[in-house]
Each structure stands twice: as C-alpha cells, then as structure tokens.
Amino acid sequence: MRRGLPWTALLVALILYPFVDRALGFQTVHAVSDGMIYVLLALGLNIVVGYAGLLDLGYAAFFAIGAYSMGLLNSPVLGSPLYGHPWSFWLCIWLAAAVSALLGVVIGAPTLRVRGDYLAIITLGFGEIIPVAIRNLGDVTVEIGSWRPIERLNLTGGENGVNPVGRPYLPSVPFETDPVPWYFLILIIGAASLWAMNRLRDSRLGRAWMAIREDETAADCTGVNPISTKLLAFALGASFSGFAGSVYAAKLQAITPGAFEFQVSIMLLCMVVLGGAGSLKGVILGGMLITLFDRVVLTQTTFMVRAFGRTTGVTALATADLTLWRWFFFGLGLVLVMLLRPEGLVGRRVRPAPITAADLEDGLEVAPAPRVDAIPAWLRERAQGGVAAATPILDVRGVTKRFGGVIALNEVDLLVPRGAIIGLIGPNGAGKTTLFNVVTGLVRPDGGRMIFDGGSLVGLRPNAIVARGIARTFQSIRLFQNMTVLENVLVGEHCRLAASVPGAVLRPPSVIAEEGRARVRARELLAFVGLGGQEDELARNLPYGDQRRLEIARALATEPRLLLLDEPSAGMNPREAETLTELIGLLRRELALSVLLIEHHMEVVMGISDRITVLDYGTRIAEGTPAAIQRDPRVIEAYLGTGYEQDLAGRESAR
Amino acid sequence: MLELADVHTYYGNIRALRGISLSVAPGEIVTLIGANGAGKTTTLRTILGTVRPRRGTVRFNGQRLDTLTTDRIVRLGIAQSPEGRRIFPRMTVLENLELGAFARRDREAIAPDLERAFTLFPRLRERSAQKGGTLSGGEQQMLAIGRALMARPALLLLDEPSMGLSPILVDAIFRIVQDINRQGTTILLVEQNARMALRVAHRGYVIQTGRIVLHDAAAALLRSDLVRKTYLGEK
To answer: Is the complex ipTM more than 0.85?
Structure first.
C-alpha cells in the first residue's frame, strides 16, 4: 500500500522518541503522553463527527465518564473493592470503555431523531450536564419522609475529585516513578485503536456511517438502518474516550471535574476539524499540532517574550503569559482553516479528478447500450427464485395519505404483477412520488393495505423494506456525493452483508471472503450499467447521466425483486432515454425484475409499460394498457394535453 | 445583445468548454441543445459568472461580463431559472417570488409582475402560502421560472425548464416561453427536449463535448440529419 511507508516511519519515530528525549535531556515524555491521550480522544470523536457526520459538542463528557469509571472502581476514597488489587487497572480500563459505550448509547438514543444544529445543541447540553452532575454527586442524600435510604453517599468526590487513583501493575515495570512506561502504554492503546478504526472505516459499518453522513434518507432507502448505525457511532466513539479517560485518570492519579469542561470538547473538535474530519491521518496531525502548540510553543514563546520584555524594560511583555491566550489562538486557527482549507489539512479534497483525453473526445456523448451478457451471474441466480408465482408481487389497496388538510393520496389501488413493468403517470403534484414514499416506508399511510410478496409493508422502516426486496431511485438524484462510485454500490449491498463490529475489526476469513465477494459484485454491476473503470471516482464528479445510472446500480446491489424508478429519464435526450429504456427492459426480461416507473417521457413509459396507472389530485383516474391510456379523454385532459396527440401524430408521419 | 467569443471553461483539469462562440440578438429565443455533459449548463454558468472562463470573452450589450461577480451580472438584467430548481425550500412560494425581484428598484411595478407570474402558473397562486420545499417537483420548476421572471430580466436564461413536467405542462411551459418572449424578454434556452425547443426558438446551436458543432435557424436544424438522429430520437 502506498500509505504504508509514512505510517511505519511515524511508528518508528514514536518508539524511538523517549530514548532520544532521555539522551538529550528534554524531559517532555510526560507532556507528549498527555498529548497522545488527547489525540486518542480526537480519533474517537472523529468516528462520530468525521465518519457519521453527527456534530457532537459535548464529547468531553465521555472522557469524564471514562476517567470517573476508573476513579470509582479503583480508588480508596470511594471505597472501591477493586483498589489495591494488583490487576485492577487492567480490568477497570475495559469496564470504563464499556460504561462509556453504554452511556454513549443512552445519550445517543434521544438525539437520533434530530439532525445537524439540533443534535449539536443537545450534545452541548449533555456536555454541560456531566461536569455539574459530577460536582454535585459528592454528597447524595435521598429522603422519603423520615426514611433515608441513602445518606451522605459520596459518588464522585464532588469538587475535590478523586485522589488517589490506582496505578497499573506489571511485574518490574516502574509505573510509579518513570514516565516512559506510561508513554508506551498510551502508545500501544493508541496504535491498537488506530488499527481498529482504520479497519472499521473500510468495512460495511464504516461505509454505512459515511452514507448516513452524506444522505440519511437515501441511506435508509438503500438498506442502512440509521438508528443502529448512529448508535454504534456514538457507542464506539465513546468507548475510545473511555480508554483515554481511564488511562488519563490513572496517569494523573487524580481527577477533578474541572478537567472535563466545555473547552475540552471544543479543543478536541478543533483537532478533528483542523486536521480534516474523516481522515485518520488528518486527525492525528491536527491533534499533534494543537497539543504541540498548547504545551510547547505557547510556553516557550512566553519565556522568550518575557526575556525580551526584561531586556527592553517593557513590563507588559516581561509579565506576559501567552498560555492565557490559548483559546484566542485556537479560535483564530479554526477561522483560518475554515477560510483557507475548509476540508482540513489532510481532508479529502473535493475536486474533479483529471479526465483523460479519451474520455473527452467521445466518451461523454452517448452512453453504451446495455448488454445481455454483461448481466452479473449472481444477480441472475437471485432472480430465478421468485418467478412464476401467480400472486402479484405488490398489492396496494385503498392507500390514503393526508398532509394537513391536503389529501395527497386518496384510496389508491395499485397492482404490480411479477415481472411486470407498471407505469405511473399523472400531473405534477398528483401524488406519484408520495405513493413511492409510502411504499418504501418514508411516509406512513393514514389508511390502506400494502402487501409485498405475501407480507404487509405498513409500519416497516425503509431499510427493512429494502431488505424485503424493494429498491428505489430518486427523482432528484440522491447519491452519496463524497463517496466513491464503488462505495456507493457497496452501500447498496449493505443489507446483504453480515459483518459485525468485531468481524470488521478482526477480519476473520469469512469477513474477508464476504468483503471480497461484495467488491467483485459491485464492479460487475458497474460494468453492467456502463460505469466500468470509474470505480474510484467520487460520485459527485460524474456527469448527470452517469449519476442516474449509478443510482440504478446502487438500487440493483440491494438485490431487489421490485424496482421503483422515479423519473429515471428526466434530463436525458431521446437517445439517452432510449438506452435507459433498453436497460429497464433487459432487467425485466433477464432478471424477472418487477418495475414500477414514474415517467414523463411518453416514448419511454408508453414503450415499455405493460399497464399504466394514472393519478390526479391523489386519486386514480385511469388504469389500463398504454394504448387505452393514450386515448382516455380524462388522461388527455388532465395530463397528456392535446399537444401530445399532435406530437404523436407528427412523429408517426415522420417515420 | 449577448456575445460569447471563443470561451474556454475548465473544472480543475477538465475542459468543459473548448471554444464556444455564440450570440443572442435582442428579442430572440435562442436554444442550445446537446447531450448530458456536453457543456450546456457550463455555458450558462459562465455567462452568469458562477464559473470563470480561462480564455475568451462574454459580453452583454458591449460590457464584459467575465470580470464581474454574479450579483452584478444579475443587476445588469440577466436572470436564470437554474437546472435542478434551486428554490428556497423553507420560504413560502410568495416569498420565493418576491425574492426574485430583490435587485429591482421599481417597487411599484412588482405587484403587476407577481400577478403575471400567478396568471402564467395558476398552481403557484393556489399554493402561495405553502413552503417551497413542500411543492412537488414540477411545481418547484414553475416556481423557479416564476422567480426568474420576477427579476424582469432583459435576458432570461432557462436551464431545462421542461424537466420533470407532465406533457400537458411541457406544452404550457413552451407556450409561456413564447409569451414571455413576445412581451419583450430575450431568451437563451437550454433543453433536452430538442423538438419542443426548436419549435419555439428562432435560432439554435448544437453543442458536443464543449464545442458548437452546428448552428442555424431553428426550422433548419429540425430538418438536419444530425439533430434528427441524435437529439430527436428519429431512426
């Protein structure tokens, strides 16, 4: 791997550092160890903010929870049964991580329904609550009438904090006197965390986080469960801070509530943003820069400024303390980064990739026609299962949906036989997309039944409906813009893959095989829709027509039996629309896929639909074969218009 | 009125426009047709200054546009109905339309124009108090065009106005384009629906991979082999 070398170099440098430090007499190992704890915290925060895109302003709370878990379990002050036991540190560090992860879920749960600004505000509140709670839980008395079940219980040590906290024990390792063992302990925890995070990023789960960050609705409709995915981000992010917090408590031997104030959250966020949210390398760089600046540059500069003040006789300079200005400098740094390099120092730059001359000459003009022999074999195998049954694949009866006073869908019936292509047309605002949203679970109907392949869809979440076998595309394309073309398709396979968190980190042979298979399938699908060779391009850099085809590939990756296409040929010229029509026909013919199609291009919808349903003002006004629909006076009046008849006649005479 | 001379526009290393020259005379409807990725939208963006040409000039009534910021260009009398609608989703339909007139000084003339927009698109009147984001796709398209008209531009840039509209509304939109033109607005129209675009336009340009490959009177283009095969879908 190309990136292997700098990582090895960094690791070697870090291993050698304490010895260099000792030889040169710097005595900075303590400070560097503390800095590494903050880097580890920033890496944990990066999972929440950088990967899952959930802006957390109260992350220091999890740091506090980790530290206090260690303190509570491993301190004589609070009478812990574990204190004094030589192995208690090694036990407590895992307990602290588990407690943090658990609280990550508890805190994450109420914030799941909110997004963006609101989530930031809730986490901000949570970040304030924890230090205050810690301060006030030092003396708890519960009084019910005259009965006092709990009297003057010291849970947290209150304002005084917890002191001492037990140190780790390893035979003949001097944790009491020497900073170097601490340095290596933190280095090992940090390296292991980094290794785990790196593997998580390139796993089924990492892709799901990024999909949520890019477009939560689209992720849900591609089979990613947003609730469990976000909770996992909170839990895993918190567990890393649990490790960091417990080591911090044991290293300092004392913790006070003041160490976990709001500023700490902000500093951690600065590290993530400065380096580049979502990039491990960037977060490490950001963390190292900020710690270095905070611990070394500010203090050294203060000495220099004071010396300068003394020699020149300026009292203001001679007594200056630049460390009091640290927040000024952090703030200034953030402002500059946002202005000059908003993606961070190492962030993935959002820019179009260079395109070769060959692409420019002819490649952009006309999409290649789909080929039968390019259909991936595995997709074909899946298709064989569900054919030939007599019952319809989708049976919608009397579905009604009101938005306030507006009836968007009024007792709509819709039948999709197996292997059929059903067109859905109607004036703009008639409720076509709403019907799609109801069927895919984005909108809950007020009444009616929806049976898909024998099971009811009412009340299911969109990702559960994808798992049942319904996939969709969107009218306004909703790709995961800042993920690669290949990753977009891999997210589509999410619900057909099984890798869990331990699986993603440890990569047993079954997970490696599964991941390899998923990638092969994704490449085959891309080749099939005509996007072969573009796998590593960011989705946002694709031209419009390619984005439409990528969305179809992503939908196919979920292995659907029913495909819902919302205006797939919008913005295409007749030639491109023709290619798309061939593709849809091929899917039905070769894969026995049933298709429900919203479309305004009459050449497309009349050409391939078996039957057409027409909606107007939320009500079904006609249903029948394309030929019958074209002559239906109600459809002509409400939808086709008289111009269409002339157009049709004109085109026929031209041929 | 509008004159592009040998315009080259890049996105990073991609050459999107490779020497576009075109002109629009006052009172005309000129259409630009071509496949996806050919450079139609980039041409409009270059005119409005949201991307800068690396070479070549854009002039509007003799004034260089390629050095001005977008808001200055709009104040000179150019408005656009962008591809993908770009309406303000959390503002009402009425507020969206009023914002279209943001740069105007003639406050008293705005009310009649609002009335004109509502007459052109009765659906917008029905929904004037509704938030833009709750409109259906086609209704948002109408709103985007209505909003552009509220600027009472001398030159109107329309990017795929028929996209996502039902056939009956496609007819209506092109009739409206002609109406707007008859009332004195010059129009540069980018369309996938080449048949309809060439029916309403006076002249047309065909763009392929960033170059103009053909330009002629619209009626002549409708008869050209290249256009009929590639853009009208005729066999």
So the answer is: no
